[in-house]
Design goal:
Number of strands: 0
Radius of gyration: 25 Å
Helix content: over 70%
Number of helices: 13
Shape: extended
Largest sheet: none
Strand content: under 5%
Structural class: mainly alpha
């Protein structure tokens, strides 16, 4: 038996909330009714990355669709809490509105912010007050462990830099990379897997610090490097096929030669 629902030519946020409520209500969708925060938490991550993909592709239609999927995730998680009597969608909206007003005293108050830097400083000062962080270590602990590792590292480094725990120039960051690479070499000589993993992590962390000094997003930089590698490798594969070279049987020198050709071709594009 169909649920009591009014079909429309155009729906709004209230309709979305009603639809999600109906999906999880008795007589609704069996799958939706079974879901918990834990069972669909990865869906939230996937939908968020699909928004990023739409932005990268400059797809307006794709962005509209993917933002809708993210909004659905918000509605689902909120409905689960409404069912428990904890909060509803209006409460979520209320809290974010209050947060925006409080953290923008340069817009809704008497604080002056002439540029983006001053606005961010104002935001951070209010955030620190409202969060009630007593130590900088506590603010570092607040950076979610669930973030991608490079993103988390850069965020942690940015926070400690704000209190002066930072190199005066990028030279210090460069030297740290060299120091960590030497320690990695020592770990490799020790043939200790745990030591190697530890030192490799330090190398990556120090490289993120360099990227921060250069005002480069390390996550995006590595993504770009990976995409570039895939593009060049596809060309190497095509060149090998064209020249009748078996990649599985070719020497590393032959493959490196094809890589250099592919690199030149891509650089000329």
């Amino acid at each position: 038996m169909a649920v009591d629902f009014e079909f429309k030519d155009r729906y709004n946020i209230d309709d979305l909330i009603e639809i999600v409520t109906l999906l999880r209500a008795p007589g609704g969708c069996p799958w939706d009714r079974e879901q918990t925060h834990e069972s669909i938490r990865k869906n939230f991550i996937e939908e968020t990355y699909e928004v990023i993909e739409a932005i990268n592709k400059n797809s307006t239609a794709g962005l509209k669709e993917e933002l809708g999927d993210v909004l659905l995730q918000v509605a689902l998680h909120t409905e689960m809490e409404r069912e428990k009597g904890n909060f509803d969608f209006d409460d979520v909206c209320n809290d974010i509105c209050q947060k925006l007003v409080i953290r923008h005293p340069h817009v809704f108050g008497d604080v002056n912010a002439k540029n983006s830097e001053e606005a961010l400083k104002s935001w951070d000062e209010v955030k620190k007050q409202t969060k009630g962080n007593k130590t900088q270590s506590q603010s570092l602990m607040d950076v979610p462990v669930e973030l991608p590792a490079l993103m988390r590292a850069q965020k942690v480094q940015s926070r400690v830099a704000k209190v002066g725990f930072d190199w005066d120039t990028i030279d210090g960051a460069y030297d740290k990379v060299a120091e960590e690479i030497n320690e990695l070499k020592i770990a490799i000589n020790h043939n200790s897997q745990s030591e190697i993993e530890d030192e490799l992590g330090d190398v990556l962390f120090s490289m993120v610090n360099v990227s921060r000094f250069l005002k480069v997003d390390s996550e995006e930089a590595l993504k770009g490097a990976t995409d570039k590698f895939i593009s060049r490798f596809r060309l190497v594969e095509a060149l090998a096929k064209e020249k009748g070279i078996s990649m599985s049987e070719a020497s590393i020198e032959e493959l490196d030669g094809l890589w250099e050709i592919a690199k030149e071709i891509k650089n000329a594009e």
